[in-house]
């Protein structure tokens, strides 16, 4: 491990010019090749030339590494009088040696290379043209909007994306692994554990809208609290919400859910007798029970993952469940079987199976075993090991009251704004250029203090040094 360049914890800044940047990074300008007579080299000369190039390349990489390490120990780095290529090169060095996600912001054509090199490019629409804006990923009018772009929208976007990915892996593992467990009991005959139409519509209609809305609307804390506590942004920098550990936890969660979804209905159907004296332990009733339990579990799970509830989120969760039952009863009706006998073979399965209270108790048991451990784990985590956002939400009312007290009061003295504005460059009429050049002011001169008060302030003239 390399030793630090500076000792102590003082804040430092690095200011470097383009010429020194070339000297440090050993970037030389390409010279025009001249026509020369080249004689064939011997094997020994070729080997020496190759070793020389390798040493030069190794020394260059070491210099670049030292420069990046030195820059990272400083609070700020200012590169002045640099070319567009050098700007892009500095960004490329940070990407290469620090493996970091880079953001470049600029407002002119000389920043285009830097903006395109960085992972995220931000363009400012200003007086230097629109080249930077056209080459960027995001664009705004003033530099100060960068704070809100990162601390609010960037952070929300990271949280939403991580929740979306984790849940998407979870619900598909919970759905798919049921077929693996079922294959041990059907002789590996490739028979599916669900109805064909359920497999087709599971990711399209039954479980897509709630996670889509979480990926678009979810937020753990408000925008004001995100700006007030910038340390919340550290979750994305540490890659805390989605990594290999989170992926395998989602895989494990989906596998455990699939085991519960399959084996609890399977154990309940071993020796069961319905109210009509018939055993409901047939393949089609089992498929409907397992599918219904899965739909309840995955939709309630996204409800537990939702931090920002709106009417649209609640409608999507309960609407997806209602849509599943509506389509299932429709596809299992006798009328659609008459029209398409080969495509709909579960005729009357849902009405017959779901009228049995025993099957509803089986589904409730499956849902409870899947979700109650998650609720307990979330409660213990928020109580014993709360995150930064959990601690902020715990004191939400107190922070909101403080924000109300900190609101800026309107100033009693407002700057006078003239109604007259010059638009000479965009008008065919004569503007105020002569008035400006003459030295006279467009604004009215303020009256002296004596005139405002009516009389002189008593004792003002007498006041003075004694």
Notes on the structure:
The chain has 466 residues and is mainly alpha-helical. It has helices spanning 18-25, 43-72, 84-98, 112-117, 131-134, 145-183, 196-206, 209-217, 223-228, 234-237, 244-268, 283-305, 311-331, 334-339, 349-353, 357-384, 388-394, 396-405, 433-437, 449-453, and strands at 13-17, 76-80, 103-106, 120-124, 138-140. The strands form 2 sheets. The chain has a 3-stranded parallel beta sheet. Strands 1-2 form a two-stranded parallel sheet. Helix 4 (112-117) links the parallel strand 3 (103-106) and strand 4. The two termini are 69 Å apart. Residues 417-428 and 446-466 have low confidence and may be disordered.
Primary descriptors:
single chain; 466 residues; mainly alpha; three-stranded parallel sheet; two-stranded parallel sheet; 5% strand; disordered C terminus
How much helix is in the residues?
55-70%
Average the pLDDT over all residues and give the rounded result. Answer: 81
Tally of contiguous helical segments: 20
Q: Regions with pLDDT < 50 over 5+ consecutive residues?
A: 417-428, 446-466
| Biggest beta sheet summary | 3 strands, parallel
SSE order and pairing:
Elements: E1 13-17, H1 18-25, H2 43-72, E2 76-80, H3 84-98, E3 103-106, H4 112-117, E4 120-124, H5 131-134, E5 138-140, H6 145-183, H7 196-206, H8 209-217, H9 223-228, H10 234-237, H11 244-268, H12 283-305, H13 311-331, H14 334-339, H15 349-353, H16 357-384, H17 388-394, H18 396-405, H19 433-437, H20 449-453
């Amino acid at each position: 491990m390399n030793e630090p360049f500076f000792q102590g914890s003082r804040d430092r800044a690095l200011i470097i010019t383009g010429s020194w940047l070339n000297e440090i990074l050993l970037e030389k300008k390409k010279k025009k090749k001249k026509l020369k007579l080249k004689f064939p080299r011997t094997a020994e000369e070729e080997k020496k030339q190759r070793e020389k190039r390798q040493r030069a390349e190794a020394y260059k990489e070491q210099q670049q590494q030292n420069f990046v390490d030195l820059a990272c120990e400083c609070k700020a780095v200012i590169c002045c009088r640099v070319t567009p290529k050098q700007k892009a090169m500095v960004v490329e060095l940070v990407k290469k040696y620090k493996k970091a996600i880079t953001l470049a912001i600029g407002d002119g054509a000389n920043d285009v290379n830097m903006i395109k090199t960085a992972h995220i490019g931000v363009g400012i629409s200003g007086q230097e043209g629109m080249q930077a804006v056209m080459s960027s990923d995001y664009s705004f009018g003033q530099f100060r909007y960068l704070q809100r772009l990162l601390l609010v929208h960037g952070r929300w976007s990271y949280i939403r994306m991580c929740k979306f990915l984790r849940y998407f892996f979870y619900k598909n593992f919970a759905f798919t692994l049921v077929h693996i467990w079922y294959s041990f009991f059907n002789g590996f005959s490739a028979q599916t554990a669900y109805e064909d139409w359920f497999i087709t519509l599971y990711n399209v209609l039954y479980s897509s809208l709630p996670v889509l809305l979480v990926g678009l609307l979810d937020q753990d804390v408000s925008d004001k609290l995100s700006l007030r506590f910038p340390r919340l942004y550290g979750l994305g920098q540490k890659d805390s919400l989605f990594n290999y550990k989170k992926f395998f936890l989602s895989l494990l969660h989906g596998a455990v859910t699939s085991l519960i979804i399959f084996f609890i209905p399977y154990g309940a159907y071993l020796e069961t007798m319905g109210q009509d004296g018939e055993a409901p332990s047939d393949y089609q009733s089992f498929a409907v029970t397992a599918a219904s339990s899965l739909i309840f579990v995955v939709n309630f799970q996204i409800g537990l993952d939702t931090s920002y509830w709106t009417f649209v989120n609640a409608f999507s969760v309960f609407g997806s469940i209602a849509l599943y039952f509506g389509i299932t009863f429709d596809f299992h009706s006798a009328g659609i079987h008459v029209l398409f006998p080969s495509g709909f073979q579960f005729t009357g399965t849902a009405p017959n199976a779901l009228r049995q209270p025993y099957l509803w108790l089986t589904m409730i048991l499956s849902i409870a075993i899947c979700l109650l451990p998650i609720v307990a784990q979330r409660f213990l985590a928020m109580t014993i090991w709360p995150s930064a956002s959990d601690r902020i939400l715990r004191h939400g009312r107190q922070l909101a009251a403080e924000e109300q007290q900190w609101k800026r009061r309107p100033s009693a003295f407002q700057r006078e704004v003239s109604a007259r504005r010059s638009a000479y460059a965009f008008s065919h009429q004569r503007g105020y250029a002569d008035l400006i050049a003459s030295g006279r002011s467009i604004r009215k001169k303020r009256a002296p203090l004596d005139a405002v008060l009516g009389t002189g302030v008593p004792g003002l003239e007498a006041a003075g040094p004694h």
